[in-house]
Amino acid sequence: MARITRKELKSDKFAEEVGLTVTFFEEHQKDLVRYGGIGLAVVVLVGGFFVYRNHEHAAREQALAMAIRIQETPVADVAVGGQQTFPSQAVKDQAAIKAFSDLEARYGGSDEAQIAEYYLGCIHSDEGKLPEAEKNFQNVADHGNQSYGSLGKLALAEIYFSEGRFDQGKKILEDLMAHPTAFVSKDQAALTLAKHLIGHDNAEARKLLAPIRESKSPVATIAQTLSAQLPPQ
Asked: Quick one: which of 39, 53, 163, 205 has the most CB atoms within 10 Å?
């Protein structure tokens, strides 16, 4: 199923938002989210609250990083060079689901919990458990902030299309086109919709692809590839 990949999820832009990078511990080993200092005039009680809040954020961030590390661990019969591996995809999925589920249960309502929910949707989708994936992505769409919510909506649209719920998928993508975010651009939503319109409404697909194909956008080549799939006019 075409959707936002975990690699894209860990792009620099996403990392800046949640305080993570592709190799969180291995390469950067530092917090990307900075907090303002507490003024000297702030009472001790308020200062204690901020210390607690920062500690909780660091704990959530570490839990998310550890869960992502599990998800990115390779599957292999024998470990190579001391690298951790899982004996099978099923065992790996079970460990990842537990890590993300524990994070969500402990830190419900936080950005990290919504990211964990998105990952759970990806895992369930990979496993072919679309009803479970739909619930995960719907939760992100409904309760995540604008940026994370858009990721949930994009993935949700893909599930709708895969199940033949064309009108629902189209409605979501049209909304994303009208309200783009840092994580889902107008072009990305348009390309996704055009992909599903090919063979269903070729005229509309062509209309969506034309401005992107002729632009200098980084996704222009994708639009050109999709345009080549359209029948001659």
From this structure: 205
